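pls design
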């Protein structure tokens, strides 16, 4: 994501009018036979799905007027296609791929990104969703007002009590968060929880003692919408039965359910994909949960609170079926066979694009583009805080890392692994980013064995064994073991090319391909020489949950300085104390996270990245080609291009439609 800034001269008022999908030109799909069943054109005067109208006629569901809020948000269908019914078929890669479920079926945070988001500075790309909002000029006081008449999927009112309960009794309950509360809810200067007040039946106010400018960005990013004891808005009337403060028998319930305590049960019940009982505000509610079959199934929420431009209740699609596949190649075959109405993620690699494109006519689908937010296909983080003092001294030598970088033939990797797409690039923001730093992006990129040897000699590795291996300060051949997560099969392939080129300059590279869980466990234990990953973007202001690749503050992304990140996170009580220049970078980062003035934030960010350029933490390989998805010819209102940010939720899946 690109940097987002805010005009602090005025009070910000977010989305107090009605919402509308931004029309993206150039969309149009060839119609073939319908992929869904039961799709019906929404005729004049028809305001809800026939399946719901039938329930109303039977008296088992209240009339539509009693189910919608007073002023429902208006979502204009992108192609003007307004057809009720059908089943949206898609897939997730193993049961771990819940991000697809969150972003495709349930992207309904308090505030959301606008569909045409391109990363412009400011809050202009954030709009009201479940709630309307205001924030003061210093980013200290936030108010959130729920839409009048909003109801949960069980018909119960959604009120300020639900907000108060979720923030104070879920997000800020130490029992539910034994490892510490997430700092988005605390004041940076004191570490104390923000003052949260109920203003009226629909409104709450959060007051911080110092600026917390990243809160709205994190809400729109759906940071708080995930499995476990999280959220910004949960139905109190349902969840209080599992909370010890409201139910003294909550631990007994947990024991009966076969889990350790009420906190375990609460976190379990909060997962919407395994617990279909909980009420929701999403367009669809779960009917077959994850783990109970070969697919997750969902059906429409009769109390969904958005309408189209003719006042017809959304969503158009009645049902969703998300097949759980165990292999990306299986998903690819199903894509080519035209088995999915709309599908994105997992299969959209450069290597697969030719065959996906060739099968468009046979599969009856089109391809839509998703510009990537990643900045590098693969970065190698050499551990500068290694437990072994000999390795730490060598790895911390910038000449050593520069030599390894010059030894990589990036064009070779791009051609062989990434289908010739992308260009040699270090781990750095792209040219169109306000944080672009040419030194960071382009230094030590050239494949040049002579330069590589010069830098390695300058690092003190002048002695060699009879077979040409460079010897370290301990007299042993220098060897770097690189951890690779099996979730990145391209890295498993790419690292072999790097291995060959490093061997040519006397450095042995050993590879360990491990599961993602084991990878993270080894890195967080500081038990690694190096590790690969992709590289994200640089965003300020941001929360601690973001991956900050260019400053070692987060042990989820600072694979090159895990000890420094742990020192920063523990405020010096754990980890490895960084050198003065890196401490300065951390101080700038802390200041930038709390700076409400966008001009100052941008300047602080540039200083942070200049230090990263001088330090040269990560060795990058190449820029990342855009990814893509497929949409059936009879599946409508999907743009030809969408932002990768929370895709496809960002383009309002509730206005997707199936039919001729």
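designed seq:
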């Amino acid at each position: 994501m690109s940097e987002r800034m805010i005009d602090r001269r005025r009070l910000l008022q977010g989305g107090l009018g009605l919402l509308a999908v931004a029309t993206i030109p150039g969309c149009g799909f060839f119609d073939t036979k319908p992929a869904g069943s039961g799709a019906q054109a929404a005729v004049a005067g028809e305001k809800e799905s026939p399946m719901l109208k039938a329930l109303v006629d039977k008296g088992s569901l209240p009339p539509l007027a009693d189910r919608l809020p007073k002023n429902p948000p208006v979502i204009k269908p992108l192609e003007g296609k307004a057809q009720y019914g059908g089943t949206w078929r898609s897939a997730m890669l193993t049961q771990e791929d819940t991000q697809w479920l969150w972003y495709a079926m349930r992207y309904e945070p308090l505030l959301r990104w606008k569909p045409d988001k391109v990363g412009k500075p400011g809050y202009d790309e954030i709009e009201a969703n479940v709630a309307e909002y205001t924030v003061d000029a210093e980013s200290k006081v936030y108010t959130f007002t729920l839409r009048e008449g909003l109801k949960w999927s069980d018909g119960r009112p959604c009120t300020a009590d639900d907000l108060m309960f979720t923030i104070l009794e879920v997000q800020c309950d130490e029992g539910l968060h034994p490892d510490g509360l997430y700092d988005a809810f605390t004041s940076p200067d004191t570490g104390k929880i923000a003052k949260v007040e109920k203003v009226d039946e629909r409104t709450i106010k959060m007051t911080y003692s110092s600026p917390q400018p990243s809160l709205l960005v994190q809400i729109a990013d759906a940071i708080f919408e995930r499995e476990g004891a999280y959220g910004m808005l949960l139905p109190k009337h349902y969840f209080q039965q599992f909370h010890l403060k409201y139910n003294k028998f909550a631990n007994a319930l947990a024991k009966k359910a076969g889990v350790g305590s009420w906190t375990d049960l609460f976190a379990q019940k909060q997962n919407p994909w395994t617990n279909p009982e909980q009420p929701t505000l999403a367009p669809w509610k779960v009917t077959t949960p994850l783990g109970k079959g070969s697919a997750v199934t969902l059906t429409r929420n009769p109390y969904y609170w958005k309408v189209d431009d003719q006042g017809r209740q959304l969503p158009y699609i009645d049902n969703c079926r998300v097949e759980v596949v165990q292999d990306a190649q299986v998903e690819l075959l199903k894509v080519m066979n035209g088995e999915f109405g709309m599908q994105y993620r997992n299969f959209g690699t450069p290597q697969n694009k030719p065959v996906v494109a060739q099968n468009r006519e046979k599969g009856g689908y089109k391809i839509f583009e998703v510009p990537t937010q990643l900045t590098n296909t693969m970065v190698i983080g050499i551990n500068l805080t290694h437990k072994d003092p000999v390795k730490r001294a060598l790895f911390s030598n910038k000449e050593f890392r520069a030599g390894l970088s010059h030894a990589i033939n990036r064009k070779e990797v791009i051609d062989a692994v990434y289908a010739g797409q992308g260009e040699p690039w270090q781990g750095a923001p792209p040219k169109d980013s306000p944080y672009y730093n040419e030194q960071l992006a382009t230094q030590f990129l050239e494949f040049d064995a002579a330069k590589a040897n010069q830098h390695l000699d300058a690092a003190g590795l002048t002695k060699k064994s009879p077979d040409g291996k460079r010897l370290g300060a301990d007299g042993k051949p220098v060897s770097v073991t690189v951890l690779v997560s099996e979730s990145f099969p391209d890295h498993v392939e790419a690292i072999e090319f790097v291995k060959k080129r490093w061997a040519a300059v006397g450095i042995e590279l050993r590879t360990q391909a491990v599961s993602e869980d084991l990878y993270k466990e080894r890195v967080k234990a500081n038990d690694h020489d190096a590790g690969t990953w992709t590289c994200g973007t640089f965003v300020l202001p941001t929360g601690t949950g973001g991956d900050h690749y260019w400053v070692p503050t987060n042990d989820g992304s600072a694979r090159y300085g895990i000890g420094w990140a742990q020192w920063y996170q523990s405020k010096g009580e754990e980890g490895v104390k960084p050198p003065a220049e890196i401490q300065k970078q951390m101080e700038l980062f802390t200041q930038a996270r709390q700076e409400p003035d966008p001009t100052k934030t941008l300047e602080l960010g540039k200083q942070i990245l200049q230090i990263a350029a001088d330090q040269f933490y990560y060795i990058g390989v190449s820029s990342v080609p855009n990814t893509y998805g497929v949409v059936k010819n009879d599946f409508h209102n999907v743009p030809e291009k969408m932002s990768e940010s929370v895709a496809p939720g960002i383009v309002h899946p509730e206005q997707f439609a199936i039919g001729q």
